[in-house]
Specification:
With about 280 residues, this protein is α+β, with helices and mostly antiparallel strands. The chain is about 25% helix and about 20% strand.
């Protein structure tokens, strides 16, 4: 009887290892790219400081997807939507390999929305793709798929009118995002996200956001932990104004950790182009 139980236990252990191996072996999907090199990603390009190891992230999660997001080779200039170089080229450590579009739309909060939506699209969670307009109206991708489009009246009232055919293609998804970029921003993003009351509980995918006109938003794309001290570090990415390449931010206050930031940064988080407070941290 004991041998039978041991055999059954061993069988289930093997199954778990096989499933885990399959999950880890599956390539992560970044819909805007036909292909990418796993050697050109956040996790492979940006080493942790001595004494730190990356925090654990289950395969298939938003955190894991962000950590492995592809980067452009070396350190190219950050470009604006119209192809010009951004004036400030000292703020970035690396550039994310993602398009910015040809319109001045994918700014700070829009970049956060883009990354969250692209992840959900990549795993087929169309129901999860919804964002609020500044008016407070919900913009759902599932409604967009069914052909409904938002019509904004003179008094800023939003109505969804069916004017198209069913289409869940990536091209149609990008059209949906462009409409969201027009009517959403840091103000609406902050209102729809949940406050992270204890910053020490930060997770990859959390967002520092100040809602305003203008406001700003930066997203946590990786984290590391010191097993000796228990202290944590994090990486940040942003777009900015005008719309520009999403990029990994440098740490302007600690060159020894750059581009990593200490989680115990105090009451004010200083980034190259904006300052945030601890209470600005939000979560989807």
């Amino acid at each position: 009887m004991l041998m039978k139980l041991l055999a059954i236990s061993l069988f289930f252990i093997i199954i778990v290892f096989i499933i885990t191996g399959i999950l880890y072996a599956q390539p992560r999907f970044y819909p805007w790219l036909d292909k990418y090199k796993t050697s050109e990603t956040v996790v492979s390009r940006i080493s942790t400081p001595d004494g730190y190891e990356r925090t654990e992230t289950p395969p298939g999660t938003f955190a894991d997807w962000l950590r492995h997001i592809p980067l452009k080779k070396r350190k190219p200039a950050v470009r604006l939507y119209d192809g010009r170089k951004k004036r400030n080229q000292k703020a970035h450590f690396a550039v994310v390999d993602i398009d910015v579009g040809s319109k001045n739309l994918q700014q700070c909060a829009d970049a956060v929305i883009r990354l969250r939506a692209e992840y959900l699209y990549s795993v087929g969670d169309y129901e999860g793709i919804h964002f609020n307009f500044t008016s407070g109206d919900k913009a759902s991708f599932t409604e967009w798929i069914e052909g409904y489009r938002p019509v904004v009246s003179d008094n800023n009232k939003v109505s969804w009118i069916k004017s198209g055919v069913r289409d869940s293609s990536y091209q149609n998804f990008r059209k949906y995002l462009e409409r969201v970029f027009i009517y959403a921003g840091s103000f609406s993003l902050k209102k729809e996200m949940q406050n992270v009351q204890n910053t020490d509980e930060m997770q990859i995918g959390d967002v520092f956001v100040q809602g305003g006109f203008p406001g700003h938003a930066v997203i946590v794309v990786d984290m590391a932990l010191s097993k000796d001290s228990g202290k944590k570090l994090f990486l940040l990415a942003q777009s900015y104004m005008p719309a520009q390449d999403i990029h990994i931010l440098r740490n302007p206050t600690n060159s020894g950790l750059d581009p990593w930031y200490k989680l115990d940064f105090g009451e004010i988080l200083h980034t190259p182009e904006w300052t945030f407070k601890r209470e600005d941290l939000r979560r989807f």
